[in-house]
Amino acid sequence: MECCPVLTVDVVVFHEGKVLLVKRGAEPFKGKWALPGGRVECGERVEEAALRELKEETGIEAELVTLVSVYSDPNRDPRGHYVSVAFLAAPKGNLEPKASTDAAEAKWFELSEVPWEDLAFDHAEILKDALKMLLHLGKSP
Question: Is residue 117 part of a domain?
Fold first, then answer.
């Protein structure tokens, strides 16, 4: 069986000790919380896709700070082999999230209130990696 991996992006946005999450409005994981993100379009750079998906799903604009990592486990998504490039971003301008496109809801979560066991895909791992990265750099979320 031949398989073509699908390229996606995920964005971790922290602000004043909170993280931005979206409630998925579509399967897979409909109704579960996740990081903003989605597919990279043909001809689009992953950095552009990350900022576009973040704005489409939450209404929040940001600047990318750094790459968190690449997540390529062939079983990370029930739809098939999806590879995600995850970024850490800092919000700019409006901080009031407004869900749109395939997000049913968008909101800031205190880190102590994040539904860790209930996050979609491997987003708990991505979020933990982003937190470790910040701690290593001596910064707070």
Answer: yes
- Considering the domain boundaries, does residue 1 fall inside one? no
Of 139, 126, 32, 41, nearest in space to 85 by CA:
126
Active-site residue among 105, 110, 113, 117?
A: 105
| Domain CATH number, residue 89 | 3.90.79.10
Q: Has 27 been annotated as catalytic?
A: no
Q: What is the pLDDT of residues 102-128, one digit of tens each?
A: 899 999 999 999 999 999 999 999 999
Domain with 46, as residue range(s), is: 6-137
Task: Give me 78's structure tokens.
Answer: 């029930």
Question: What gap in Å lies between CA 110 and CA 83, rounded to an integer?
Answer: 28
- Dist CA 92 CA 11 (whole Å): 14
